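for the recovery benchmark. tokens below, seq after
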């Protein structure tokens, strides 16, 4: 199977070869040889995939949105085209999967059935869908979609579909099944759970150098996670083992032709040596044409044509300045992809309410103090904005670095109660101190101040420090934040403006690399931080009193630094499940809105944020454990992710632009117009006529 897709760096090609479970070694070898020939003809650029029946990669499965049907038969069946309007068929299909559907032709017998899966009895003019008593709605819906696909594409729309959800309620359809399968004797088997790799297993990435020495294959481990791009040497071939879940072979551009041609055989040898199952996925990739799946396993990935310019990033650590790009907020609703990229739902002109968690309850914060957050506290910030003539809500849960566990827990509990007050419509955003999202900065209009410790409670017994130092970053009201840093000279940075508040004066220290806009924003913040006289000083012109307040001179960051970015990272969508006690995620490749099912909890990872989408019919256990699942996802990510990454809870039907913008052609009316499983089932019409059809 050959697939071209357009990316930001040109055309990417995927080349898949598929191995049936009953194919011979000679056939498998011939297929691998043919792939090498095709790879040569295409200039060595395709990403090559080895797919084994029943264990196909998520990329391969994404091409068949209505599911894959495995047919019985020998080699010739693979070359036979689908014949439409042929009705002399009698087969039983075992349908499995929720996001990725597969249907395997099994023995026409009750012995093939179990309680947890969907089975499709295909009799040509009649398709009977039998749903096991333990099936969920998603599995039933996917089974029905497959039945309709067979009816419409293979039978020209002339076959009838009947559904058995409860055998007692469908005596006529059960009669047909008994005529074909005979009387059922004994109890149905329990479903066999899918053996899927959990996230802990996938996180166990190891990089190996592979070479031959004296006709022996030598595999030398060189690194474990987090992996860095510089480990890949252009003159070598490497194997990356993702916990036995998938094997990647990376072929350096300067490696020999023999090394490149033996990539698959070396991967197979590696699988055998490790004792992994023969069905393990293999992906062969070329230096300079790496797949997104491969690149996301590394801590950082830089494309060779990328330039890294000066600019400004909002954290207190000493990293790159990343240039501020101004954008027109009026375009946000017309261009949702811009809203997603800029992480802004609107122009931040909505209504803001702030509460502090005190004695485990919500206490309103004085509006004059809005924007001032103390590291010893937790806060709830409710933002209300209008869209399409009705209010929408974002509920930020800000967690101070020094807040107690009880306060953090109380913050989450109070957030749930506040959400209920607004009809469970709020988008919930967990904000870790120092990781405030762009929109959070914007709603405080340039006056967001983060105090390292302490509390905003009036009756605190701890006196405030007499000397405080704040690092101010931002060029306008939409992106400015002041963060308290240790009051010593080593905290300074030539790229920024700092406020040094003492009992006599407030210094505005302007580094050589700061701009006029940054100085103006610092003046606005200075009026909030200190009531003392303001004194602006330039780097290199400091009075002796300035250094005395900081405890003396000391070296500090003074060079311009380059931007650290994860431009390789593409948004990824996953179905989450942790009901079995193991955290399992199924990726949806090439995702769209249709992949968000009502009974799902889905995770959208855009690197800067992690969104949790909660379907309205989702399982209560998975819904309640959603935040824990997101934290587990970050913790087990192979790239060694920042555990303070914002986690945003989004409910079906109340998706903000920063979420919908990642989806192509989002339909806001889908949830009201889309058909449920029961509606699709009823649309099949009267099935009583099915029993009149003679079974041959």
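predicted aa per position
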């Amino acid at each position: 199977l050959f697939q071209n897709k357009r990316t930001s760096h040109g055309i990417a090609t995927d080349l898949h070869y598929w191995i049936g479970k009953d194919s011979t070694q000679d056939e498998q070898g011939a297929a691998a040889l043919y792939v090498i020939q095709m790879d040569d003809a295409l200039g060595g650029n395709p990403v090559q995939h080895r797919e084994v029946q029943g264990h196909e990669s998520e990329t391969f499965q994404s091409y068949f949105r209505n599911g894959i049907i495995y047919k019985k038969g020998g080699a010739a069946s693979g070359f036979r085209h689908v014949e439409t309007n042929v009705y002399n068929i009698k087969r039983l299909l075992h349908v499995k999967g929720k996001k990725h559907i597969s249907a395997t032709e099994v023995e026409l017998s009750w012995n093939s059935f179990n309680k947890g899966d969907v089975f499709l009895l295909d009799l040509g003019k009649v398709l009977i869908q039998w749903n096991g008593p333990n099936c969920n709605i998603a599995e039933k819906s996917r089974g029905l979609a497959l039945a309709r696909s067979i009816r419409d594409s293979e039978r020209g729309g002339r076959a009838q579909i009947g559904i058995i959800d409860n055998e007692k309620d469908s005596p006529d359809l059960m009669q047909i099944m008994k005529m074909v399968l005979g009387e059922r004797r004994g109890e149905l088997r329990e479903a066999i759970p899918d053996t899927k790799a959990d996230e802990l297993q996938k996180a166990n990435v190891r990089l190996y150098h592979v070479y031959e020495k004296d006709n022996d294959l030598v595999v030398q481990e060189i690194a474990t996670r987090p992996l860095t791009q510089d480990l890949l040497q252009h003159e070598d071939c490497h194997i990356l083992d993702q916990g036995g879940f998938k094997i990647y072979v990376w072929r350096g551009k300067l490696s020999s032709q023999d090394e490149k041609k033996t990539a698959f055989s070396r991967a197979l040898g590696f699988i055998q040596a490790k004792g992994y199952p023969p069905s393990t996925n293999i992906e062969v990739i070329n230096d300079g044409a790496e797949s997104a799946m491969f690149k996301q396993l590394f801590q950082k990935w830089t494309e060779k044509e990328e330039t890294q310019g000066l600019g400004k990033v909002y954290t207190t650590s000493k990293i790159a300045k990343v240039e501020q790009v101004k954008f027109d907020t009026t375009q946000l609703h017309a261009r949702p992809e811009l809203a997603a990229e800029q992480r802004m739902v609107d122009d931040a002109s909505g209504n803001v309410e702030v509460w502090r968690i005190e004695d485990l309850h919500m206490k309103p914060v004085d509006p004059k103090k809005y924007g001032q957050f103390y590291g010893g506290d937790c806060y709830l910030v409710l933002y209300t904005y209008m869209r399409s003539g009705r209010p929408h809500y974002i509920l930020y849960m800000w967690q101070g670095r020094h807040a107690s566990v009880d306060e953090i827990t109380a913050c989450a509990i109070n957030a749930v109660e506040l959400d209920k007050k607004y009809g469970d419509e709020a988008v919930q955003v967990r904000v870790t101190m120092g990781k405030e999202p762009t929109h959070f900065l914007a709603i405080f209009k340039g006056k967001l101040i983060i105090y390292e410790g302490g509390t905003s409670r009036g009756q605190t017994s701890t006196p405030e420090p007499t000397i405080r130092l704040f690092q101010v970053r931002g060029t306008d009201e939409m992106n400015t934040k002041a963060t308290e840093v240790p009051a010593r000279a080593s905290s300074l940075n030539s790229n920024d403006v700092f406020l040094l508040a003492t009992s006599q004066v407030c210094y505005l220290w302007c580094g050589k690399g700061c701009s006029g806009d940054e100085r103006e924003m610092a003046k606005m913040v200075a009026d909030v931080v200190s009531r003392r006289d303001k004194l602006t000083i330039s780097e290199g012109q400091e009075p002796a009193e300035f250094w005395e307040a900081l405890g003396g001179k000391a070296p500090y960051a003074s060079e311009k630094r380059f931007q650290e970015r994860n431009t390789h990272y593409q948004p990824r969508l996953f179905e989450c499940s942790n009901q079995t006690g193991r955290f399992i995620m199924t990726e949806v490749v090439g995702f769209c809105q249709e992949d968000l099912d009502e009974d799902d909890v889905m995770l959208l990872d855009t690197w800067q944020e992690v969104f949790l989408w909660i379907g309205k019919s989702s399982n209560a256990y998975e819904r309640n454990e959603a935040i824990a699942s997101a934290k587990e996802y970050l913790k087990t990510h192979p790239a060694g992710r920042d555990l303070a990454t914002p986690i945003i809870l989004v409910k079906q039907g109340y998706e903000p632009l920063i979420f919908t913008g990642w989806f192509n052609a989002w339909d806001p009316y889908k949830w009201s117009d889309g058909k449920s499983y029961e509606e699709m089932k009823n649309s099949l019409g009267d099935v009583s006529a099915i029993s009149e059809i003679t079974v041959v």
